[in-house]
Amino acid sequence: MAFVKQQLSLTSFISCLQARLGKPSLVRETSRMTLPQIAKHPLSSAKRILGFGVKEQDALKGIVLEDGLDSQLRQIAVSTANTKKNKAPFRHVLLHGPPGTGKTMFAKGLAQHSGLDFAIFTGGDIAPLGRDAVTELHKLFEWAQTSRRGLLLFVDEADAFLQSRETAKISEDQRNALNAFLYRTGTETDKFMMVYASNQPSQFDEAVMDRIDEMVEFDVPGADERKRMIAQYIEKYLLNPPGRWTKKVTTEGIGDEEIEMVVSLTEGFSGRAISKLAIAWQSAAYGTDGAILDRDAFFKTVDYHKNSMKKKEDWLQHAQNRANMLTSDQ
User: Fold this and answer.
1) Among 157, 188, 217, which residue terminates a domain?
2) Could you give the residue ranges of the DSSP H alpha helices within 165-291?
3) Of 46, 130, 229, 275, whose CB count within 10 A is highest?
4) What pLDDT is stored for residue 34 in this prediction?
């Protein structure tokens, strides 16, 4: 009998541990420790779970923004960190703007700066789940409640899931999933903080809007920001790339004048697009003997990227026009 009780106790403990540390299927990425990680590194994992040796990080580390947006985000970071320290209810934030403008980077930096765990799920993952979406959402929020440090739950492409029940054509399963989400986020809490990212927040359901406490608009970088980004990524990917064995790139005929020309040529580029441009410069250099990037290859790479971006925009516009036609036919 005692043996049976021990077995039941052990089973209960394992179930509790899995509920706390097992990553829900909806979560694409998280900073929380998982069971395999703990088994592999038990000592360091224990220290991390208990918060020992966790260093506070600048929430905007590595992100180049215009001054007004920079100030707003730093204020949110200070407020969130103090909210956690005082165990007060978290405020929920909407980050909206074009893709590649730093929304996800900021959310991750905000979590680390504030001493919160971080988890991301994507709105587009909800609809394919059908009637299982409600169950998976409840699992997600039950898991969020178990974080010892508090959790920043980042909803990417939020408009794909949180569309208005009044104006958008959504299935019964999607409606039920939205209702489950609203039920889980309708009460103030010090357990988790919601951060939504969207390109089209005007599509949000009214009840979702009511849950948002602060809105932050991200835009494509201006000339000054692009200049700083280009300098930052040239340093990172060409002059001093990360990795002990990564070869440095030698630049020839590329100076301040050429940088200013690229700043002008990249108008409309997002931060992500500029990062990919710098990686393309690195790749072009690695295609030569000696990893050399000359002036001609420098500008040819820019032209190639501009043309590629134009084609992608045309394809997306064509797809959107077709979707609009299909919707109107219905």
Assistant:
1) 217
2) 172-184, 206-211, 223-234, 256-265, 271-286
3) 229
4) 62
Q: Both tokens of residue 221?
A: 């970088």
User: Domain check: are 270 and 202 in the same one?
Assistant: no
Are 279 and 230 spatial neighbours (Cβ–Cβ below 8 Å)?
A: no
Q: What is the CATH number of the domain that holds 7?
A: 3.40.50.300
pTM for this predicted structure: 0.84
CB atoms within 10 A of CB 170: 17
**128-135 long-range CB contacts below 8 Å, 24 or more apart?**
129/173, 129/177, 130/173, 131/173, 131/176, 133/173, 133/174, 133/176, 133/177, 133/180, 134/176, 134/177, 134/180
Residue 151: beta bridge partners?
Answer: 117, 192
Note the pLDDT tens digit of each residue in 64-91: 999 999 999 999 999 999 999 999 999 9
Q: Mean of the pLDDT values across residues 218-238?
A: 96
Instruction: Establish if 85 belongs to a structural domain.
Output: yes
The two structure tokens encoding residue 244: 């002990």
Whether residue 157 sits in one domain with residue 188: yes
pLDDT for the residue 58: 85
Within a domain: residue 321?
no
Domain containing residue 246 = 223-313
Q: Flag whether 326 is in a domain.
A: no
Same domain, 227 and 189: no
Is 275 part of any domain? yes
Beta carbons within 8 Å of 172's beta carbon, 6+ residues apart: none
Residue of 223, 235, 288 whose CA lies nearest to 260 = 223
Domain tally, the chain: 2
Higher model confidence: residue 322 or residue 274? 274
Query: Is residue 123's pLDDT more than 70?
Result: yes
